[in-house]
Amino acid sequence: MKKVLIIIVIVFVFMQFFRIDKNNPIVKPEENYVTITHAPKEVESILKSSCYDCHSNESKYPWYTNIAPISWYVKDHINEGRSYLNFSEFGRYNNYQKKHIYESLYAAANEGWMPLDSYLWIHKDAKLSTKDKKILKEWFSKFVSEDKKG
């Protein structure tokens, strides 16, 4: 039992040598969602507090991202989130992609499946209030056809 514990500690210490890259890519205003859509300040504020950590190049890395393997999970989660939608690179999407993104954003605001529960466990302030959801739903509805609002 003692040997197993020692091995676990050694493995844990060894894992700490494999750090994640916490550098965020540069945000270009001409590609940034808020800039190119002229989103109202209240929409920008909601997106930055509830969406940008996983869906932009402005991710904030909290203290626990210094501890492997937690850091690996968080980095993977951010990479996955950015692969679905990156607000910092919105200008790079073609019209078809933007249409699909807006439909997803509208559905997320309408049905409340974002931010993910796993994110909200630690980031309670990112939880969308009823008012926040209404604001986002109204904003995104401008970009979604009526048949997709169902």
Short description, anyone?
Residues 9-144 form the Haem-binding domain. With 150 residues, the chain is mainly alpha-helical. The protein is 54% helix and 0% strand.
Structure explained in plain terms:
By secondary structure, the chain is mostly helical. It has one domain. Helices cover 54% and strands 0% of the residues. It has eight helices and no strands. The radius of gyration is 18 Å and the shape is elongated. 20% of the residues are buried.
Q: Give the integer mean of the pLDDT values.
A: 94
Number of domains: 1
Shape verdict: elongated
Beta-strand segment tally: 0
Organism: Apibacter adventoris
Domain Haem-binding: 9-144
Pfam families: Haem_bd (PF14376)
Protein name: Cytochrome C
